[in-house]
Amino acid sequence: MKSFFNAEDIGDLGKALKEALEVKANPFGYQHLGKNRTIMIVFFNSSLRTRLSTQKAALNLGMSPIVLNIGQDSWKLETELGVVMDSDKSEHLREAIPVIGSYCDIIGVRSFAGLTDREFDYNETILKQFIEYSGKPVISLESATVHPCQAFADLITIEEHRKSARPKVVMTWAPHPKALPQAVPNSFAQWMCAADVDFVIAQPEGYELDPKFTKGAKIEYDQMKALEGADFVYAKNWSCPGVTDPSKYGQILSKDMGWTVDARHMAVTNDAYFMHCLPVRRNMIVSDEVIDSPRSLVIPEAANRVVSAQVVIKRMLEEL
Ligand code: SN0
After folding, report:
1. Ligand 1 neighbour 277 (Cβ under 6 A)
2. Is the pTM of this model over 0.90?
3. Cβ(180) to ligand 1 under 6 A?
4. Residue 31 Cα to ligand 1 middle (Å)
5. DSSP state string for 131-184
């Protein structure tokens, strides 16, 4: 695997899930693969789970992880091409990326959507430069449009908890005070559409995700109707993807607290499990009662971030 950002990069999902469960049962069984290998984990934005789980996955595989926080540990980096560099950004990605690449075997990058220029974000301009200029395998650790390590961990969590062959999985938009990227819902939709589940997306008007991620999903504007009979409820906020109206890209169109997942919502489900990628705003996205209930999977879901990262890094190491 040369790069990891789409569901198709991991190939057959059944095989990937089997490998994930094997790695989870035997986390230190592949340490020979990582001997004398280094992964550079680069953050343009904050992180808790991604930062820790990617390092832990690398350590489990016998690798040395190095974490770089851009702008804090390093110079501020310019990402736009062709600009006169007279701002506070001291170094360009064009130099920084090959330098980083020369010090490691694999690179992981977190670089959120800017949410102002849809084309810049949806072309994955920053991640693509890492792929082009580093010469190393690159993992998206949430880039502008995708968060594949999260979606893979979510799929593993669903696989471990499902009671039927084809569970009903409902991803519902929920309110948030800030404009958030679409990366998490894009990837979750892409992975659920590729997996064998009955997948429904519930959202207010105007929040339609880019169809390239939602092919095969049922779209529902009535949240309660969508949640009926759900086996898994996956809550997430996202800002306007700008599909129907590009001028609204990155905007908050609704803060309707009626969409906050609470006991009333969970009551119409098939005793569903609750999922969220974290960090979560309590009593905005989900009520305390639901996230603190025994049906909440947020902690096992976060724990599986080590497993998903480990499968991805393992596959890359096997091909070095
Ligand atoms: C990010 C997002 O893409 O939604 C990362 C999720 C893994 N979330 C946030 O930035 C939340 C920040 C906040 O202030 O709640």
Report:
1. yes
2. yes
3. yes
4. 32
5. HHHH-S-EEESS-SS--HHHHHHHHHHHHHH-SSSS-EEEEEE---SS---SHH
Q: Could you tell me the two tokens for 315?
A: 């596959």
Of 180, 239, 277, 298, which is best to mutate to test ligand 1, by the most ligand atoms within 8 angstroms of its C-beta?
180
| Ligand 1 centroid distance, CA of 191 (Å) | 19
36-90 pLDDT, tens digit each = 999 999 999 999 999 999 999 999 999 999 999 998 888 999 988 899 999 999 9
Within 13 Å of residue 281, how many CA atoms lie on the same side as its CB?
14
181 lines ligand 1 (CB under 6 A): yes
Scanning the structure block, which residue is given the tokens 């075997």?
105
192 neighbors 213 (Cβ within 8 angstroms): no
Looking from the CA of residue 45, the nearest atom of ligand 1 is 10
CB-neighbour burial class of residue 26 (10 A; exposed 0-12, middle 13-18, buried 19+) = exposed
Q: What angle do CA 209, 212, 217 make, to 5 degrees?
A: 65
Q: Is the distance from the beta carbon of residue 113 to the nearest atom of ligand 1 less than 6 Å? A: no
Q: From atom 12 of ligand 1, which residue's Cα is the shortest distance away?
A: 279
**CA distance to 110, 130, 143, per residue, from 89 (Å):** 18, 18, 20
Q: Distance from the CA of 1 to the center of ligand 1, in angstroms?
A: 27
Residue in the structure block whose two tokens are 């700008």: 242
Query: Which domains are delineated in the chain?
Result: 3-146+304-318 (3.40.50.1370), 150-301 (3.40.50.1370)
